[in-house]
C-alpha cells in the first residue's frame, strides 16, 4: 500500500511522488522573486524534483506589483536559460513556466485590458490572496477571471487564516468555479498546526484539486522528503496527473 509513496526501499524513507507526476507551484526562476537566486540553485531544485518522482513542472514566479514586477518578457528568457542548464545537467524533467498572480490592481488591469498571462495547462490561472486581510469581492473577482476565459486556481487556500472562522467560503469558491491547490508541506506541520488542520479539513471535504510544492529553496524539497504528510497522500484523488497530457 505504501509503495507508491515511499518506493520499494523503505529503509531510506524516500517519498515517491510519481503518482502526482507534475508540480504546478514553485519558484525556481533565479533572481526575480523570493525563490532561488542562481541558475545552479535552479538546476539543483530540478534534480531534487526529479528524485521526488516529478516528470514535469510549471514553475510560478510571483507577479505582485508592489514587490515583484514580473511579466512574460522577464520570465520567459530566464526560463530558457534554466531549461538549457537542466538539459546540460542530464536531467529529464520538463520545465515550463506559468506565474503566481497576486490579486491586486495591476492584476485586475491586466484582466480588463486583455494583457497576456502565463498560465498552467488548460488555461488555468494560479492566483493568490493577501495573507493578512480578506479580499472583499473575491466571488466577483473569480467570476470576472472566468468571464475572461481563464480557469482560476487558488494557491494554498489553507494558509488564509481569515477564512478559518467560516471555512464554508472555500466551498462557495469551488461552487463558483475556482479550483484549489494545497501545499504538500501543509499536510505536515511545516506551516504550523492550524494550517495543517485546515489542509486536512479541505481534503476531508473533497475541495482540493491539485497538490503543489510551493518550493522556494531546496530545503523545502528536503522537508517534503522528511515529512511526506499523512494518509491523505495515499488515497486522495489529486488531479495533477490529468494536466500532463494537456
From TrEMBL:
Pfam families: CpsB_CapC. It catalyses: O-phospho-L-tyrosyl-[protein] + H2O = L-tyrosyl-[protein] + phosphate. It is an enzyme of class 3 (hydrolase). Transmembrane segments: none annotated. GO terms for molecular function: manganese ion binding; protein tyrosine phosphatase activity. Keywords: Hydrolase. Its EC number is 3.1.3.48. SUPFAM superfamilies: PHP domain-like (SSF89550). PANTHER family: TYROSINE-PROTEIN PHOSPHATASE YWQE. Belongs to the metallo-dependent hydrolases superfamily. CpsB/CapC family. This is protein-tyrosine-phosphatase. It comes from Dyadobacter helix. The gene is ywqE.
